[in-house]
Structures are given as C-alpha cells and as structure tokens.
C-alpha cells in the first residue's frame, strides 16, 4: 500500500496537476474569505466543469479549494467579525478582538500557520491510516453518534456568554431551526409551512450569513462616516517567517486540535464547525489563563483554525473507503469522484491507486501551499479591503452574501430566508444575545435527535440499548468527566484553600 | 400596402416557424435534474447528454441544469410546467416521483408528462455483514418469522424503492421487519457493515464495491443480473419479489409527435452504442432501456403499487 503511495507521486508532480492545486488553493482562499460563499458551494459549482477534465486535475482543484476555503474563512472572521465559512465561527472569538487591538495581521498569520499544520496533519493521517481508521468509523452506529452529539452539545456551557438565560434561548433557537424539514424517521414535515423549499431543512450557510454577516454589514452602514475601518486600528503585518518563531509555543494546541479535527473528520455527519468549537473549548480548558480567551488570545485562533483544517483530509477517509462523507464538503467531493467514474469503497484503492493516492498527495500539497499563498499574498491583499470606506464595504458584503446564498440552490427563497435571519441577527446583536449557541444548536440539535430516535428504533424502544456497548460507554465517560471534572477540581481546590486558611 | 406587409410577414414567420420545427433541435436542450451536481441521477444525465447530442442531429447541444430540493420534487414540478417544445426535458426517478404524489401535496401527477425513456434499472438487494449468521435468504426469513420485528433493516429513506421492496417482501412472505431509515444509502450501508443493523436493503450498484465486507443474499430481478451472475435472484430462492430503482427521462405532456419520435430514436441509438453502457456502468448506473409507451405503462404499474402500499400501510 505504501508503495502505491510513492508510485502515485510522479504523476501528481506533473505541471497541470500542480497548477490545479495552486489554482484551487487561491480560489479556495477567495471563496472562503467572501461571506456567503463556502467550499461546499464552490466545489459543487466546479463539478460540472470538471466533467471533461483529467480526474487528477479536477481532484487537485477540489483538494486545493477545500484547504484554501477552510483558512480563507478566517480572514473576514478576524478583520470584520464575519466568519467567511461556517467553520470559522470559533476563529472570530479571539481573532476579532486581536484585530481591534492592532494585532490583526498576527492573528491572520497564526490562522494561516495553524491551518497549514492542521491540513498537513490531516493529509498525513489520510495517507498512512485511511484503511485502519475506516474501521473506527464502523464502530459508530446511531447510538454512538448520538453520544458524540451530546458531547458536542455539552460544550455549549462555555459558549453561553455572560447571561446564561439569553445563551440558552439562543441555543433553543438554533435547535428549532435545525429540526425544520422532513423528518427522516417518520417522514412528517416539521415547521415547513407547506414550502417545498424547506423540506430538506435550512442550509447552515443561509442561517450563518443571516446572523453573522448581515448585522456587522448593517453596522458598517449605520456609522456612515467615510473614514476607513483601517483608520481605527493598525493591522500590523510583518513577515510571516519572522512571526512563526513566536508561535512555536502553541505546539500543544496544534497537536491537540489536530487530533480533535482528525477524529471529528472521520465521524460521519459531524463537520468542520464542530471540530473548531470542540478544539477551541479543549484548548481553553487546558490554558493557564482562561480569562484572556475571548479577548484576543492568539492560541484561540490557533485552536480553531488547526481543527477546521485538520478535518479536511480526514473527512475523506470514510468518504473514500465507505462512501460516507465526514463533512458536507466531503459529500460534494464524492460527487466529483463519481462523475469521473470513481466509486468509493475498497475497490477504489485497488482499481485506481494512482488516482486515490495522488488525491491524497494533493491534499498534502494544498496544505503546505497555504503557508506560501495564504501567508504573504492573500493576507496582504485581503487586508487592503479594509481601506475601503465603511458604507461601501458594507454594501459590497451584503451584495456578496445575497449572490452566495442565491447560488446554493439557485432560488430567491433562500435569499428571503437570509433576510429574515438577518433581521433576527440584528436584534440579537442589539439585545446582546450570544450567537455561537445558535450555530451549535443548529449543527447538533437535529443531529442528536435523529440519531437518538434511529438508535431507539433499532433497539426496539429499549433505552438501555443506548449505553450497552463499549464505544458508547467510552464517549459517555469522556463527556461526564469533561463536565463534572472542572466542578470536582473546584471543590477540591476550595477545600484545600479552606484547610490552608484554617491552619 | 400595410395589410399586405402584415400578411407577408405573417407568412414568413409561419414559414420560419414550421421550418424551425422541422429542424428540431434548433437551440439548446435543457435537462432538468432535481438533485445537486454529482449525485447518481445527475451523473446519469451528464453521461446521457453527449450521446443524445451525437444521435439527435449534428451540432445539437444538451445541457444539464440542477434544481435540487425536496428529494427531486422541485425539479420535476418545473418540468411538468414547462412548455412542451422539446427544449425542456427532465430526469425522472421511480418509485420516488410517484410516491411523492401520494405522501405530499404535489403540483404534478402521472398524467403531467410525456414519457420518453427509462434508462437505468438498479435492482434491489438484501445484504448482511460478512460476519453475520444470517448469510442466506432462508436463515434470514426463518429468523424474521420466529420473532416478528427483531430483524432491523437499514435503508436509505422511506417511500423509496428500498422501502417498497421491503413492503413487497413482507406482503409476499408474511414476515415482519423493523425499518431503520437513514439519511441516504451510504450511512445505512456503513451501519450494516458495522453490525448496527441486522440487514440492509440497497441497490445492486451500491454494494458491488463492498462484496468483501457484505453478503449479498439475493437480487430482485427476474433473471440474474449480468453485473454479478453469481448472485441468485429472490425468485430462485422461493421469494417472488422483483423491484428496483428506475431512472429515466420525461418531457412535459403534449410533446409534438415528431419531436417525441426524434428523441425516442436518439435514446434507442444511444442505448445501442456499446460506449454508452460502459460509461453508465462506470458511474454506477446499470442500464436497461424502456421506451415511450412501455415506460408509461411501467410508471403506471409503479404508481399503482405505491398507491396500494400507501392505502394499506402509509409510511407517515
């Protein structure tokens, strides 16, 4: 198998194939950086055009786009507090405060280096461990996936913000939006109000840009002084090579977040956003000064960005070996493979080793290219956007958002829906309702519910089947320890200090 | 003078119009696919398109337009409401498109279309994990009858061909199963491989790549499939069930007879082209052509069965 890996290399290094990855990464960064356009969309737009292309050229472009977009989403998240892709929400927590305090350039550099590291780690795992890790995917049935979703939901505690009631209302809103559509278990239509467009549920991009992109864009219009945003803070970009040494202290976060990203990637259904949220929380929990998090802690950017790139190549593991995509981007990529007559499964590795392993190399190159392309070129040019007058920037963002949302399914309905969510988001912003719980609720709400009900259906309504197998028990144990652990520690510490003061 | 001009131009327009008509197709033909790019139906349409171009007339263009949503319903409704001029065609999936007219409010019916050609017939199969004890149809049916509902069945969705296959199986044998509908066939297949459900119902093309991980107990065709002639049919094993997922092409109702003729002819020629079945098979689409009126009759048969299932055991 490893011989196949080496055999595939020369072909990948052909100029057309290298060029396709380069073009893909650049396109991906641009798509990711534009709010409303996502990697999923870019690749599904690309697929019909690749019909006539050489498979490796097409696959290289897709791998490049995936890697590029996962980083590109960080650019507006840092500069404008508008996550460019769903997976960049967690990046904005610390990235934007950093930009406000004049360290935006450094934040972007942290983001690009972390993205590249996550992507490289993921690609290496894909290359070396794809077949064994696909066995891990098999361990996860509906019951196990339900517990993973519960684990993810438990991190909501840390996202509630200052006012837990408002945070919970936000989360409940997210969950409500997530259950819209036709229910897979019974086929009933929920909250669709007889609109065919709602039967498949609400696309996360529609909700995300409504909540995250429109309110800040409106904000740019509201303060219509024609000063540039840049006037307010200095971006402070230096050479990326000089910046890297100061990041080396993040190695623990890089390692931890890579592992989290890879693991989330191989789980079917969970995606980049969940990886970024989880790794952000774990990094904060491990940090010595958790108070600084949310106020411009570079490590927070590193955690989120490593994880959302670490699940790119690893999401292809179940996709290539089992045909189940780990993320929505991997799902459209499968379509790209199918259109070239490449059907996922063990046969794929045997029949088309040069393509499969070539594709893996392209993931690796895409990740490495990020540092070169994302670091100097893209970061500098995108940062210039901030020189635009505020009203103009706001108007451009709003136009882009609507184009992006329209192009998901090519219908105005989604644009109206985005406008509706924009209104909701605007008032949530003004009334200080936190937005992250909405996203988490949307991602995990119906995901948990569907798998719970499917697990119960399979277990013939016997609730004990939910925790009867080993994998479930391990996940439950981890969840409990993560939630209860800090409480216990606090009690112990308190006792200790009481004992000390008693002496 | 003015009157003459009007007459003259009207004649000219009429002449052009009929002339243009005779030369169908004179502009690009759109095939509306109700799913996003890269899905099985989309790949079928994109594979068929160049062959249609080749066999219609020189220089014909056929483009695929994706209108995803509501499991294909948005796209097929668009086709039903389009002008029957031969420039809007659509993909058509059975039994899904007919089942949607029963379980949802639909703005089309079986009578909204001119049936052109059903191209793909992907038969249903029953699979179990390689290490499962239920490795023959006989053992499976015995287990299902011994404890009704104990056998859990993973499948892609309710109201699709997998579901109808199970209904035919239950009706024919009297056995009872517990349905576990997943979101698509790939997660269901993974659940079978991981032992989370006892068996799975899929289409043959979906499991051919996984023969080392799965036992294929039987295939729901009249005669053994040429794709895997070592797999026995269910009929051979005493369970008389034939069912599958069908994919084809329709046009709006009242398509002009000459246009219809040209299209049917092009489909027949494409089907006879050996390159065609090769390209289709590579993308997981086993071909079997059912043309024109035969396709319409096939659709009616599918509709009647879906209706009988819906009336006796509605799935929602």
UniProtKB/TrEMBL annotation, chain A:
<keyword id="KW-0472">Membrane</keyword>
<protein>
    <submittedName>
        <fullName>Tricarboxylic transport membrane protein</fullName>
    </submittedName>
</protein>
<feature type="transmembrane region" description="Helical">
    <location>
        <begin position="46"/>
        <end position="66"/>
    </location>
</feature>
<feature type="transmembrane region" description="Helical">
    <location>
        <begin position="254"/>
        <end position="278"/>
    </location>
</feature>
<feature type="transmembrane region" description="Helical">
    <location>
        <begin position="136"/>
        <end position="161"/>
    </location>
</feature>
<keyword id="KW-1133">Transmembrane helix</keyword>
<dbReference type="Pfam" id="PF01970">
    <property type="entry name" value="TctA"/>
</dbReference>
<feature type="transmembrane region" description="Helical">
    <location>
        <begin position="474"/>
        <end position="492"/>
    </location>
</feature>
<feature type="transmembrane region" description="Helical">
    <location>
        <begin position="106"/>
        <end position="129"/>
    </location>
</feature>
<feature type="transmembrane region" description="Helical">
    <location>
        <begin position="12"/>
        <end position="34"/>
    </location>
</feature>
<dbReference type="InterPro" id="IPR002823">
    <property type="entry name" value="DUF112_TM"/>
</dbReference>
<feature type="transmembrane region" description="Helical">
    <location>
        <begin position="319"/>
        <end position="339"/>
    </location>
</feature>
<feature type="transmembrane region" description="Helical">
    <location>
        <begin position="167"/>
        <end position="186"/>
    </location>
</feature>
<feature type="transmembrane region" description="Helical">
    <location>
        <begin position="391"/>
        <end position="408"/>
    </location>
</feature>
<keyword id="KW-0812">Transmembrane</keyword>
<feature type="transmembrane region" description="Helical">
    <location>
        <begin position="359"/>
        <end position="379"/>
    </location>
</feature>
<feature type="domain" description="DUF112">
    <location>
        <begin position="19"/>
        <end position="440"/>
    </location>
</feature>
UniProtKB/TrEMBL annotation, chain B:
<keyword id="KW-0675">Receptor</keyword>
<feature type="signal peptide">
    <location>
        <begin position="1"/>
        <end position="22"/>
    </location>
</feature>
<dbReference type="Pfam" id="PF03401">
    <property type="entry name" value="TctC"/>
</dbReference>
<dbReference type="InterPro" id="IPR042100">
    <property type="entry name" value="Bug_dom1"/>
</dbReference>
<keyword id="KW-0732">Signal</keyword>
<dbReference type="InterPro" id="IPR005064">
    <property type="entry name" value="BUG"/>
</dbReference>
<comment type="similarity">
    <text>Belongs to the UPF0065 (bug) family.</text>
</comment>
<protein>
    <submittedName>
        <fullName>Tripartite-type tricarboxylate transporter receptor subunit TctC</fullName>
    </submittedName>
</protein>
């Amino acid at each position: 198998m490893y011989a196949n890996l080496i055999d595939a290399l020369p072909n990948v290094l052909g100029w057309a194939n290298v060029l396709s990855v380069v073009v893909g990464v650049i396109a991906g960064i641009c798509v990711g950086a534009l709010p409303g356009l996502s990697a999923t969309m870019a690749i599904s737009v690309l697929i019909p055009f690749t019909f006539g292309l050489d498979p490796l050229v097409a696959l290289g472009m897709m791998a490049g786009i995936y890697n590029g977009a996962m980083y590109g989403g960080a650019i507006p998240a840092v500069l404008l507090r508008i996550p460019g892709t769903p997976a960049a929400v967690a990046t904005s927590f610390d990235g934007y405060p950093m930009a406000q305090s004049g360290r935006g350039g450094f934040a972007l550099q942290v983001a690009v280096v972390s993205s590249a590291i996550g992507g490289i780690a993921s690609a290496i795992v894909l290359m070396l461990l794809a077949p064994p890790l696909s066995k891990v995917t098999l361990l996860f049935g509906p019951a196990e996936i339900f517990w993973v979703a519960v684990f993810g939901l438990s991190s909501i505690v840390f996202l509630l913000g200052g006012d837990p009631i408002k945070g919970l209302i936000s989360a409940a809103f997210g969950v409500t939006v997530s259950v819209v559509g036709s229910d897979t278990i019974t086929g009933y239509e929920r909250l669709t109000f007889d609109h065919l467009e709602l039967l498949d549920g609400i696309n996360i991009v529609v909700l995300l840009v409504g909540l995250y992109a429109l309110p800040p864009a409106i904000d740019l219009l509201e303060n219509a002084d024609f000063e540039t945003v840049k006037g307010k803070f200095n971006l402070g970009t230096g050479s990326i090579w000089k910046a890297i040494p100061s990041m080396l202290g993040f190695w623990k976060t890089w390692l931890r977040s890579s592992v989290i990203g890879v693991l989330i990637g191989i789980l079917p259904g969970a995606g980049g956003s969940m990886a970024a949220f989880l790794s952000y929380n774990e990094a904060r929990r491990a940090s010595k000064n958790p108070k600084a998090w949310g106020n411009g802690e570079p490590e927070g950017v590193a955690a989120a960005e490593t994880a959302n790139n670490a699940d790119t190549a690893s999401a292809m593991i179940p996709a290539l070996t089992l045909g189940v995509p780990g993320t929505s981007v991997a799902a459209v990529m499968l379509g790209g493979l199918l259109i070239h007559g490449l059907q996922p499964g063990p046969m794929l590795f045997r029949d088309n080793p040069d393509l499969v392993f070539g594709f893996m190399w392209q993931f690796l190159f895409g990740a490495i290219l990020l540092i070169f392309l994302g670091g100097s070129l893209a970061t500098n040019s995108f940062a210039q956007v901030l020189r635009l007058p505020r009203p103009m920037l706001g108007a451009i963002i709003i136009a882009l958002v609507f184009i992006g949302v329209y192009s998901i399914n090519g219908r105005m309905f989604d644009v109206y829906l985005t406008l509706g969510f924009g209104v909701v988001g605007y008032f949530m912003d003004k009334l200080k309702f936190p937005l992250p719980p909405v996203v988490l609720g949307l991602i995990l709400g119906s995901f948990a519910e569907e798998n719970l009900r499917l697990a119960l259906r399979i277990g013939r309504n016997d609730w004990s089947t939910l925790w009867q197998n080993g994998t479930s028990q391990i996940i439950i144990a981890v969840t409990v320890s993560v939630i209860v652990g800090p409480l216990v520690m606090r009690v112990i510490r308190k006792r200790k200090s009481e004992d000390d003061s008693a002496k | 003078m003015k009157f003459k001009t009007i007459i003259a131009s009207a004649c000219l327009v009429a002449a052009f119009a009929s002339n243009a008509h005779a030369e169908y197709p004179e502009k690009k033909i759109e095939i509306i696919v109700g799913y996003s790019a890269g899905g099985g139906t989309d790949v079928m349409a994109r594979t068929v398109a160049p062959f249609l171009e080749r066999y219609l007339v020189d220089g014909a263009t056929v483009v695929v337009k994706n209108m995803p949503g509501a499991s294909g319903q948005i796209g097929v409704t668009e086709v039903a409401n389009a002008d029957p001029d031969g420039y809007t065609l659509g993909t058509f999936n059975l039994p899904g498109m007919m089942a949607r007219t029963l379980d949802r409010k639909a703005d089309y019916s079986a009578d909204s279309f001119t049936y052109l050609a059903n191209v793909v017939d992907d038969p249903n199969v029953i699979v179990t994990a390689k290490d499962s004890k239920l490795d023959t149809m006989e053992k499976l049916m015995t287990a299902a009858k011994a404890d009704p509902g104990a056998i859990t069945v993973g499948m892609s969705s309710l109201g699709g061909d997998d579901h109808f296959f199970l209904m035919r199986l239950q009706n024919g044998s009297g056995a009872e199963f517990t349905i576990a509908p997943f979101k698509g066939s790939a997660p269901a297949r993974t659940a079978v491989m991981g032992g989370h459900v006892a068996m799975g119902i899929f289409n043959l093309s979906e499991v051919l790549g996984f023969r080392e991980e799965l036992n294929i107990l039987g295939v729901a065709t009249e005669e053994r499939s040429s794709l895997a002639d070592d797999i026995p049919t269910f009929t051979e094993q005493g369970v008389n069930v034939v069912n599958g997922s069908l994919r084809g092409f329709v046009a709006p109702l009242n398509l002009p007879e000459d246009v219809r003729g040209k299209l049917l002819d092009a489909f027949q020629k494409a089907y006879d082209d050996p390159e065609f079945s090769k390209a289709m098979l590579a993308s997981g689409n086993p071909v079997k052509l059912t043309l024109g009126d035969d396709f319409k009759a096939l659709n009616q048969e599918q509709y009647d069965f879906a209706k009988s299932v819906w009336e006796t055991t509605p799935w929602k």
